[in-house]
Design brief:
Blueprint (H helix, E strand, L loop, with lengths): L3 E13 L11 E4 L2 E6 L1 H14 L9 E4 L2 H11 L6 H10 L4 E4 L2 E5 L3 E4 H13 L1 H6 L8 H13 L3 H6 L15 E3 L2 E3 L6 E8 L10 E21 H7 L4 H17 L6 H4 L7 E7 L26 H19 L5 E5 L13 H15 L1
Antiparallel strand pairs: 1-11, 1-12, 2-3, 3-9, 4-7, 5-6, 8-11, 9-11, 10-11, 12-13
Helix pairs in contact: 1-9, 2-4, 4-6, 9-12
Length: 372
């Protein structure tokens, strides 16, 4: 039986365009028969990964890097090891493990697709190339590389323990044995309220104009919306520990980092224009051994201001509907989700409320360690 850590949040966001589609408009979706704002899971995971590093929730050695420019990255490290002009041997080393590289005119070659590798694995790969430099220089056919060399390179890619890779997974199309099943599932955030797209007309004023010119140097529009988001994510603790080669302490640290980043990280889309830096007004964390259970259906009927008696805005009525869904599911399916909450709206009823995010994460980790 697996242990799951679930994250639920209600986050009221000011006018913004956090996550755009291919036309530049904020993403949205139909849900419960009406148009809702949407922030994609990819966008939310990217923001969380950036916070892992920027807020020092995890060390560089505990994190990975996702890039097509792995050749340039390794070349920099080999230059530091007094090995210049290493592009060719790096290409050969990657081809030994069936990772193809595309040549580019007047630029460093890139891999065919993004590689998600641990920082320690990149360092180890540079060291393996240094140690086997002559063999790689003389190698004519990558398929005929010695077994020992191939195994060393494979270990660099698959053996490094990066928490973000363990959480979010990795897929390499032509080396399925390098794939990592994600321990975390992150839902697209959807608004609890129905939204309509709005458009901001703007002008960029020319600071130095001629007498016959208009002051506006550029005219344009940008689409935006304001919404109250429901966000959901779940971490399979057993899968996370497996992905980290059984290192429970690192897994617990990864869970704590994931929960804090999920609460605090805000996507960067159009923030210079809107500065919508709004933290969640409600966070619920559940630790249990049933199965992942999203509460999104609490909002099939969209929330609207004043719908709940004596409750203003959207966040508080959203919390009320969320708790109703929790109670309904608990009764119908005989569930005990063990939900602990941080509620700034005052709408959540019960004794499971906690005063701060620090305490909420600490108590959740204590529950994990007690029951796992």
């Amino acid at each position: 039986m697996s242990t799951f850590i679930e994250f639920h949040a209600i986050q009221n966001v000011a006018p913004s365009c956090l996550n755009r589609d291919d036309t530049g408009a904020p993403k949205d979706a139909m849900f419960g028969g009406s148009r809702r704002a949407r922030v994609s899971s990819q966008c939310l995971k990217r923001a969380a990964r950036q916070m892992f590093s920027s807020s020092q929730l995890l060390t560089k050695e505990e994190l990975g890097i996702r890039t097509r420019n792995i050749v340039a990255l390794i070349a920099e490290k080999l230059t530091e090891l007094d090995i210049p002009d290493s592009i060719t041997v790096i290409e050969k080393a990657l081809k030994v493990v069936d990772l193809q590289v595309k040549s580019r005119e007047d630029s460093t070659p890139q891999t065919e697709y993004l590689l998600f590798l641990g920082h320690t694995g990149v360092d180890q790969l540079a060291n393996v190339i240094q140690e086997n430099l002559e063999e790689l220089k003389e190698l004519k056919d990558a398929k005929k590389a010695k077994k020992g060399l191939k195994e060393k390179i494979e270990e660099c890619i698959s053996g490094s323990r990066a928490v973000d890779i363990a959480l979010f997974g990795r897929m390499l199309a032509n080396r399925k044995d390098f794939n990592v099943d994600a321990a975390a599932q992150v839902a697209h955030a959807i608004s609890t309220n129905t939204i309509t797209r709005e458009s901001d007309f703007f002008t960029a004023v020319d600071d130095f104009t001629q007498a016959d010119e208009a002051d506006a140097g550029m005219l344009g529009t940008v689409e935006f919306n304001s919404s109250c988001l429901y966000r959901y994510a779940a971490v399979n603790l057993d899968q996370l520990i497996k992905n980290l080669d059984g290192d429970r302490e690192l897994a617990y640290k990864g869970v704590a980092a994931f929960l804090r980043a999920s609460a605090m990280a805000i996507p960067t889309g159009k923030q210079n224009t809107f500065a919508a830096h709004n933290l969640p007004e409600f966070i619920g964390i559940a630790v249990h051994q049933t199965q992942p259970i999203s509460l999104a259906n609490a909002f099939q009927e969209s929330v609207w201001r004043g719908k709940e008696k004596d409750l203003q805005g959207l966040a508080a009525p959203s919390v009320v509907q969320l708790q109703r869904q929790v109670n309904t599911l608990a009764k119908a399916y005989n569930l005990d989700l063990g939900l602990k909450v941080l509620d700034l709206t005052g709408a959540w009823e019960g004794e499971s409320t906690i005063d701060s995010l620090d305490q909420l994460i600490e108590q959740s980790l204590a529950s994990i360690q007690e029951n796992y």
